[in-house]
Design goal:
Elements lengths: L15 H18 L13 E6 L5 H12 L3 E6 L11 H9 L5 E6 L4 H6 L5 E7 L5 H15 L6 E5 L6 H12 L3 E5 L15 E3 L2 H7 L2 E4 L15 H8 L3 H5 L6 E3 L12 H4 L6 H19 L9
Parallel strand pairs: 1-2, 1-3, 3-4, 5-6, 5-8, 6-7, 8-9
Helix pairs in contact: 1-5, 1-11, 2-11, 5-6, 5-11
């Protein structure tokens, strides 16, 4: 029971067996989280720093909760309130933290490749909590766990990624994971938000939302990331919602049931309407709950613990 990697930098680096092990371990931790006492002493001798250079709510809180449930000692770092604002470099910041004998670093950064850079310069295990427009591996893992939990498996499932594919690290990690696990993947959105040559990653491309929803078993609706768009890529949010927003009327017009997902935060009334986000089709809150179990599994496996999982 060990991963083939020292760091979780991206799904691209994982083997299929690694993914299966993480999802299996997460299922055990999900059972732990249903107990009256949800805390286990598994990582009581491990110190973890949460190094967030980018704003985050769900991911940061989910990692913090996972660490506390495993009894790890945690240090929370925010760039806006640190020496980074005075000009301190990334490597100096981390070396200062490591001098405090930190075992693992959970890192989110706006620069693509920042966790990879860090992994080459420090001995601690690095977990990528999102780097630029590259990858967000734990989000893809919790998405996969949520699909498996709802539908019973990933192989042969048809999963649509809808929205801002161009700027989404969630999309890239999901594509890597789902194709490795035998699922079919289709991306859908305006042509300006679909990267060129994305078919080379083994996915289908569609610009017709209705046809995509009719094809898929699962629709993972992605946020429009206006903060990463340096020029207008569609005329207005209202027009985007008209052509690519997932509405209850559209979902009800399908001749089958589909599962609706969203990594959050939701732009309600833009990519996803409230009457869908809050409907029985949605497993968005399940994704949030499963995120803690999946991140517990990742932390446990990277820490290399050999003791029993449930103690």
């Amino acid at each position: 029971m060990s991963l083939s990697v020292k760091h979780l930098l991206g799904i691209k680096d994982l083997k299929k067996e690694d993914i299966e092990l993480i999802l299996h371990t997460a299922a055990n931790f999900k059972d732990v989280l249903q107990r009256p006492i949800k805390k286990v002493p598994t990582l009581r001798d491990t110190t973890i720093v949460n190094l967030f250079y980018e704003n985050s709510t769900r991911t940061r809180i989910s990692f913090e909760l996972a660490e506390k449930r495993l009894s790890a000692d945690t240090i929370n770092f925010a760039a806006s309130s640190s020496s980074v604002s005075k000009g301190e470099t990334l490597i100096d910041t981390v070396n200062n933290v490591l001098s405090m004998k930190v075992d693992m670093v959970v890192m989110r950064h706006s620069a693509t490749g920042a966790p990879h850079f860090l992994s080459r310069h420090i001995p601690a295990s690095i977990i990528n909590a999102g780097d630029g427009i590259n990858e967000h591996p734990t989000q893809a893992l919790l998405d996969a766990y949520s699909i498996k939990e709802r539908l019973g498996g990933l192989e042969g499932r048809k999963v649509a990624l809808i929205g801002d594919i161009m700027h989404s690290r969630v999309a890239l990690s999901n594509i890597y994971l789902l194709t490795k696990m035998g699922a079919e993947v289709e991306v859908c959105g305006p042509p300006t938000l679909i990267p060129k040559h994305i078919e080379h990653l083994g996915v289908r491309v569609s610009y017709d939302l209705k046809k995509t929803l009719q094809w898929c078993d699962v629709a993972n609706v992605l946020r429009i990331q206006l903060e990463r768009q340096h020029k207008p890529l569609f005329s207005s949010l209202r027009e985007y919602n008209l052509y690519y927003g997932v509405s209850r009327q559209l979902v009800d017009s399908l001749d089958k049931e589909i599962v609706i997902m969203h990594p959050g935060p939701i732009n309600r009334g833009v990519e996803l309407n409230s009457d869908v986000a809050d409907s029985g089709h949605s497993i968005i809150l399940d994704q949030v709950e499963n995120g803690v179990a999946v991140r517990m599994a990742v932390l446990y496996l990277l820490a290399g613990k050999k003791d029993e999982l449930v103690v």
